[in-house]
Each structure stands twice: as structure tokens, then as C-alpha cells.
Amino acid sequence: MRLTNLTDYALRQLMYLGQNEDRLCTIAEIAQYHQISQAHLMKVTHLLSKGGWIQTQRGKNGGMRLARAPEDINLGELVRYTETDLAVVECLGSGTHCILSGRCNLSNILKQALVQFLSYLDNYTLRDIIVPGSSPEQTISWPTKSMHSA
After folding, report:
1. Which domains does the chain have, with CATH numbers?
2. Tens digit of pLDDT for each residue in 99-145?
3. Is 15:130 a contact under the CB 8 Å cutoff?
4. CA distance 84 to 94
């Protein structure tokens, strides 16, 4: 399974905000830190704000912050929110018809794998992936070009 850039960027943004809970952060600073385009981050910000993950404040001294405590942001819930198509293979997608239907159990196995993947993520929160006492400058350097599909 491959997560989209949207999920990747959402996780990066939430981690950054979780490491800076005491202040408002801007799209420009997060984009610069992660070396991703501000345009992409604006889309992610809109989606996260709309979903109640972050709070935004407009204006000269504006920015964003987490809308929930990091320990209340569940990773499984976030992935379900940001991923629009969790079908691992085409035959799991909605409205598809596989010619092997009825003669192949792969789809059942992959469905269970997806359930287990998401269930595993349900055991973790944003707090679990933020290194305690760290600032963005101290965290592991993320790749500048994601290998995930958009």
C-alpha cells in the first residue's frame, strides 16, 4: 500500500504543529522546512482545517495550530480522512468487476490486510510519532521529494 502525498504532507504538517504547540505557525515556514510547495501545503491546510484537525487564524499575525491535543489525533483516523482510495488493487475499488470474481480469494486477503493496517494505525496518535522534547530542527530529516504518489 502506498500513501498519497496528501497524507504524507498532512502528517508532516501535524507533526510540525505538534512540535510548536505554543505558537501559531505559517504555511511559509512549514513549506520551507519540509521543502514542499506552499500551494500543496495550502490545499492540505484547507483540508485539515475543514476536518477539524487544525485551527487557522487569518491576518498579519495569523497562522495555524492543532485543534486537538497530539494525543487526541489518531493516525488511523487521519489516514482514513486523507486517503480517498484505500483499494490496494483494482478489484477492491468500488464499481469494478473482476473476471476472476468467484475464483480468486486474493481480494478477501487484501481486504483483511487493509483492515489490519488501519487497525494497527488506530493504536497510535500524533504524540507517538513526535520525539519528546524535540523541535523541528532536531527531528529526522524527511526526504525532500516524496516517493509517494499524489
Report:
1. 5-138 (1.10.10.10)
2. 766 677 888 888 899 999 999 999 999 999 997 765 555 444 444 44
3. yes
4. 12
